[in-house]
Amino acid sequence: MNHAPAEPGSRAGGVAGERRLVDGGPMSRLIGTVVRPVVFTMIPYVAGMTVEEVEREHGVGEIVKLSSNENPLGASPRVFAAIEAALPHLMWYPEQSFIDLKEALAAANGVDPDNICVGHGSETIIQLIPQLCVRPGDDVVLAEASYGRYSEVSKLMEARLIYVPLRDLRYDLEAMAAAVTEDTRIVWIANPNNPTGTFVTRDEVQTFLDAVPPTVLVVFDQAYYEYVDDPEYPDALELLKGGHDNIIVLRTFSKAYGLAGIRLGYAVATARIRELLDTIKEPFNLNRLSVVAGPAALADEEWTRHCVAENKRGRDFLTAELAAMGLDPAPSQTNFVFFDAKQDANELFERMLRRGVIIRPAGAWGLPTHVRVTVGTAEQNRRFLEVLRSETV
Q1: What residues contact residue 120 under an 8 Å CB cut-off, 6+ apart?
Q2: For 65, 139, 246, 345, which has the most beta carbons within 10 A of its beta carbon?
Q3: Strands 64-65 and 357-358, how do they pair?
Q4: Are 147 and 266 within one domain?
Q5: Which residues pair with 267 in a beta bridge?
C-alpha cells in the first residue's frame, strides 16, 4: 500500500491590509530549520464530511450521513441529564484524577481503576503509545487497510513502519507475527477492523500472542467491541487479565454509546503502563461534560442494548441487500458495512453526495472500488440503497 507524503504548506486567510503569514523567504527558511523533517511526510487525517459541510458547500438539504460510523440513535437520555447538571460548573477544571469515571469504567470492565487511562477520544491514547515506547528507527508492525492514525502517530516518532497486507479483507496475524523482529516495539491490531468490519478469531489471536515476544507491545483497538456478536470473537481484555501484560486494550464512547461529539475514550493496561501513559499525557485531558457523560452512558445498559439490537437489524438488512445487488459485502461485526461498489468509489461518493447521501470511499486505503457505509436508521438505510441503486452502473 503506497503512502504518499503530505506536502508542507498552509492555508492563509484574512482581509485586505491584514498581515498574512505565507511560506517563502524568511518564513520558509524558519520552517525548514525548526520543523522536524518527518512532519512533512505525514498524511493529515481526512474525516468524513459533516452535514454542515455538505449543506454549506453543496446546498443540499435532507442529508443522510453514513460516513463516520456514528450511532444514529444518539446518546442515552441519562447522558443529557448528567450534562445538564454539570453545566453550572464549567468555570472549574475537572478533578484531575477522574476517579468517578475511572471507577465506573473499572467496574464495567472488571478491573481496578489503576488499570484505566482515559483520553479525549481513544485517538489521544493512540497518540501517546508511540511517544511512550518508540525511538527513531524502531519497528512498528501494522496492517494495510486499517485505521490510519496507527501509522501516522508511529511515523511521527520516526518508527520504521512494517505493513502487512490483509488476507481476504482480514488481518493476517500469521504474517504479522512473522514480521516482528528484535527491533519491534508495537503491533497495532484493530479488532474488528476499520474499514472492513472483519475480525480475527480467538484461536488466531492466541496463536499470534504465543509467537510474539512479551517485550513487544500489542495494542488491540476494540472501538466496535459492543457491536460484536460472533462467538469466535476474542476479547483482548480477557487475555490481558489472563497474564498477557504486553497488551493494551482501547475502547471508545464514540460508537455504541452515541458520544462521538463528546470525545471520550479509554485504555485498559497493566497498572505500570497506565501510570506511564498518565505521566506523559497532558493534564486535564478530559472536560467536565465527558467526565459525567461516561458513567451515565455506562449506567443505561438498556439503551445500549437497544442501540446494538437496532444496529444488528440494520446491518443484516444492508448486508442482504448489497449481496443481492452483487456488491460483495464483507461480513461485518461493527456498525458499518464494507462492500465492493464495482466502480470508482470516489466518483460514486461525489454523485451520491450531490443527492444528499454521504458515504466513505476506500481509495485512501488502497481499495479504489470499495465503500464503507455506516448503518443508519431504517429510513436512512432505505434512502442509501435507493440512491445507490440509481447510481450503480
Answers
A1: 263, 264, 265, 285, 286, 287, 290
A2: 345
A3: parallel
A4: yes
A5: 117, 250
Phi, psi of 270 (to 5 degrees): -60, 155
> Is residue 23 in some structural domain?
no
Could you say which DSSP state residue 8 is in? P
* Residue 242 sits in the same domain as residue 223: yes
Q: How many CB atoms lie within 10 A of CB 54?
A: 20
Total domains in the chain come to 2
Residues 338-367: tens digit of each pLDDT: 999 999 999 999 999 999 999 999 999 999
Q: Sign of the C-alpha dihedral, residues 6, 7, 10, 11?
A: negative
CA–CA–CA angle 175, 180, 186 (5° rounding): 110
Q: Specify whether 149 is located in the same domain as 81.
A: yes
| Residue 64: Cβ-neighbour burial (10 angstroms; 0-12, 13-18, 19+) | buried
The whole domain housing 128 covers: 77-299
Query: Tell me: the pLDDT tens digits for 309-347?
Result: 999 999 999 999 999 999 999 999 999 999 999 999 999
Task: With beta carbons less than 8 A apart as the criterion, state whether 338 and 195 touch.
Answer: yes
Length of the chain: 393
Are 275 and 363 members of one domain? Answer: no
| CB-CB contact of 250 with 115 (8 Å) | no
Indicate whether 8 belongs to any domain. Answer: no
Of 99, 186, 170, which Cα lies nearest the Cα of 134?
Answer: 186
Q: What is the CATH number of the domain that holds 344?
A: 3.90.1150.10
- Torsion (CA) 192, 317, 351, 69 in degrees, nearest 10: -30
Grid coordinates representing 94? 475537572
Q: Are residues 369 and 322 in the same domain?
A: yes
pLDDT, one tens digit per residue, over 99-130 is 999 999 999 999 999 999 999 999 999 999 99
State how far the Cα of 123 lies from the Cα of 9, in Å rounded to an integer.
Answer: 24
Which of 267, 299, 331 is at the close of a domain?
A: 299
Residue with cell 466502480: 343
Q: Is residue 123 part of a domain?
A: yes
